[in-house]
Amino acid sequence: MLVSDRPSGFDVAIPFVEYSGIRLLETTVERVVTELNLAEHHLNSAGYAHGGAVMTLLDVTMAIAGRMVARDPGPKDTVMATVEMKTSFMQGGRGRLRCTGSCVHQTRSLAFCEAEIRDEAGELVARASGTFRFMARRRSPSDG
């Protein structure tokens, strides 16, 4: 789960991501690495990773990469909204999928990101590019 693997200063809970089982392995300004161990509920009828699971992994990784470069109000208080995303599927994924993403350009309000997923054998499963909007996180009364 993402919750238990959050790096210091990365305190945003995303219930859907936590439910999906995506794990955050590495976060730097240069790159973000996530991982998903495929379970039966992640698969399509052919036994490969469902396209929605693949796209979720790509989307989450790119959004985190964009968030890492947020300047104002900073990564801790920024959420990312997906504006658009293009995905290319190269082959079906099985087993453990590892996604590596980065922010390739940013403006005051947008982050342009890329990510790719490889399987355990290092084979390319999918690649995506996306545009994300920086948004200030709304604080709840329990945030203090």
Description of the molecule:
The protein is an alpha+beta fold. The chain has a single domain, classed as Thiol Ester Dehydrase, Chain A (Roll), CATH 3.10.129. The chain is built from 2 helices and 6 strands; from the N terminus they run αββαββββ. It has helices at 15-20, 51-68, and strands spanning 23-27, 32-37, 78-89, 96-106, 110-118, 124-136. Strands 1-2-4-5-6-3 form a 6-stranded antiparallel beta sheet, covered by helices on one side. The radius of gyration is 15 Å and the shape is globular.
Give the overall average pLDDT.
88
Reading the helices and strands in chain order gives HEEHEEEE
Within CATH, the superfamily carries the name Hotdog Thioesterase
Strand order of the largest sheet: 1-2-4-5-6-3
Q: Strand-residue fraction?
A: 35-45%
Major sheet attributes: 6 strands, antiparallel
What is the CATH fold-level name? Thiol Ester Dehydrase, Chain A
Q: What is the structural class?
A: alpha+beta
Our measurement of the CA-to-CA distance between the termini, rounded to an integer number of angstroms, reads 25 Å
Task: Reconstruct the topology from this structure.
Blueprint: H1 15-20, E1 23-27, E2 32-37, H2 51-68, E3 78-89, E4 96-106, E5 110-118, E6 124-136
Antiparallel strand pairs: 1-2, 2-4, 3-6, 4-5, 5-6
